[in-house]
User: What shape does this take?
Amino acid sequence: MKVLVTGTGSLLLGGIASELVRRGDDVVCLQRRPSAFIGHQNAQEVLADICDAEAVVAAAHGCDAIIHGAARVGVVGSQKEFYDTNVTGTRNILEATEQHNISRLVFVSTPSVAHTGDSLIGAPAGEAEIGRSRSHYAESKAIAERTVLNARNEQLAVVAVRPHLVWGPGDTQLVGRIVDRAASGRLAVIGTGDALVDSTYIDNAISAHIAALDSLHIGSACDGKAYVISNGEPRTVNELMRSMCNSAGVPFEPRHVSLAMGIRLGSLVERLWPMMRSSEPPLTRFIAEQLGTAHWFDQRAVQQDLGWTPHVSLDEGFQRLTQWFASR
Assistant: This one.
């Protein structure tokens, strides 16, 4: 099978591409910057922006399936910048499927498309919400996910996979930020830190997307649906942060900020930060809600429809993270 994987510069999508190559698939890696895939006999690298429609269509030539994960993430950037990458880029992918008669599309989404601030306890993957998000990222991904799911037809099978809080060795987004802030005494916990949240060890996130690809075909159980995937082991925010800090050998001594105060501070930071910095801000309303409310998900539909279960427990994942930090 020949698969186009977009966004392979990220930990997750790069891992997916690597696993596909390892098992013998031919992979086209579309990303903006060079990576370690250069030179592998089963991998072709295409350096292009997902917003470049001609480049996307050309990259998909000869492919049987697409795993689309290229996206603008975070909170820094204008609404247009997020829309152009996440929505227009996704439409370019759909154009490629049509021009090349590609029959399978796995869309890498995010649970934040259906998280509007309230707690989610044992929740199914709700419908992507448009017009209620406090984040350009979540809003644009919600529009993109709906666009993909609505594109399902007699020639194209589609599925949206929403990995929740992916982490592991080499992760700079979640683990890296928590460890850096803890090491510098800037780590904050919203509320008591007792909110239960799901997370996903990187190897499980990789295998879930490949299971979605393998399960997907026209008329399959997962065709046209969205799934939140996780380890299925909800832990408190305190437990997750403490375990990451312990793995890195840094003290876990956070400051506690109430949820209400976190939302107010986040709102203030959102207004002032773009005028002062170009990096990601330490707090926004969206981040405060994510850290201060419970959000964990029912995994039964995932396991039934995709035939997938996580194979690395959180405890084993933290052992691997500890070994990775020690090796550095």
User: Anything to note?
Assistant: The two ends are 36 Å apart (CA to CA). The domain at 2-168+199-232+297-311 is CATH 3.40.50.720 (Rossmann fold).
